Amino acid sequence: MKPESRSVPVGTLARVVEVLRAQGADPWPLLGRYGIGPASLEEPMAPLALTLCGRILADAAQASGRPQLAVQVGARANMENAGPLRLLLLSSRNVRDAVDGLLRYGRIWYRGIDTALTVREGYAVFSVEIDGACAGRDDLLTAYLAANLQMFRLMLGKPWLPAAVSLSRPPPPELAPFVAHFGPDVRFGQPRDEFVFPAGTLEQRCGVADEAVESSVVRYLSELESHVAPDFLGQARQAIRDLMLLGECTAPRLASLFAVHRFTLHRHLQDHGTSFAQLLDEEREALARRLLGHTDMPLGDVARALGFKTQAGFNKAFHRWQGVAPGTVRAGGRRRPRLRLHRD
Fold this sequence. Notes:
Residues 234-332 form the HTH araC/xylS-type domain. Pfam families: Arabinose_bd, HTH_18. This is AraC family transcriptional regulator. Helices cover 51% and strands 10% of the residues. It has helices spanning 13-22, 28-32, 50-64, 69-75, 84-91, 95-105, 137-156, 176-182, 211-225, 232-246, 251-257, 262-271, 276-294, 299-305, 311-322, 326-332, and strands at 7-9, 47-49, 113-120, 123-130, 164-166, 186-187, 193-198. The strands form two sheets. It has a five-stranded mixed β-sheet, with helices on both faces. Strands 1-2 form a two-stranded antiparallel sheet. Strand 3 and strand 4 form a beta hairpin. Helix 1 packs across helix 4.
């Protein structure tokens, strides 16, 4: 069966079933509205459209009256239904090898959810991104960031907390479920969804490292990967998002990440009907709308986060994108809560 262009394994919904049951609710009437029944989960690696998964997560959160449902779904991740990915995770020599494997081979089944690992100044950042808008986007991002954090605990074989967590969703009415999983330093309304931890964690051994098993699994996954067309544009967009937030988003810098000359990069982008300038413009617009819609970040800070030298330059670009000034968009929305985590 050919995967959808943006899809996740249908086994993801098994965690939704567990959470709803733990709350005393029958999950099947809700799932049944989307054509999902118990038989649907018998092939857990079968593709489920990403947009459908997002709608189900959002609907389940609303129906149960629990905005934190997504983080509870992610917290239950154990990769029992992930076949070779779980085996790779547990057999890798160290956390770095395991994460590299998940980033590379996870896209075979998790298509449309971009994950990345960057290391800088002694800290590593694991991020999750979804290109474009879709129903339940905030819930999808929260669930998959929570799930990947849970994978680190599985790799390390012990309770583990990152140094800080950023979520793009607005602050929820109840912080406790988020703090319980992500730790005390969790921030909302941020530019992207990520967790930060000391880079030394990447060198720690996995719980049951087995090089022979790891080698065998990598060969199998490489064979599967050879039948999956590379998502060049998706990778380029993810890299642009990362570089933009690092303040290093230039065409030569992007080309260096792909290990090609900038002229070669331009040619590849042209073959895909786009350009570096167009992709950067689109990613800037998407991030601007998110920051204006979910945070109270000052407009000058928003401009700098997007890579504009002046707020005037940002104002001009935003007017071109939306036909109005950024201040007008923010003034027209409801007042956003301050991005602080209050502790007793």
